[in-house]
Amino acid sequence: xxxxxxxxxxxxxxxxxxxxxxxxxxxxxxxxxxxxxxxxxxxxxxxxxxxxxxxxxxxxxxxxxxxxxxxxxxxxxxxxxxxxxxxxxxxxxxxxxxxxxxxxxxxxxxxxxx
Length: 114
Ligand SMILES: [Cu+2]
Prior knowledge:
- The chain is mainly β.
- The chain is built from 1 helix and 9 strands, in the order αβββββββββ.
- β6 and β7 form a beta hairpin.
């Protein structure tokens, strides 16, 4: 790989979209999770977007139906099955406007309702 190509890759990595915030947020403890909302630093490609909820051992709990909103930087996955108390992972992927795929995983915990 020549150095110019390496530089171009580094620049692309700097400028494509990144996860800015999420609901539930990373490492949050919540009573219920009706949906997962991911907000990115730039617009994302809905057709390349996927959000799943997994157990900590990566067993699939639910692959969410993902929708966009009026803000192209936000995607929302609807959780149809109530989550039992326990620890979970959100695994997401999406596409930047520049064509690069971005992905990530973060954890959250569901506690019993009082
Ligand atoms: Cu990029």
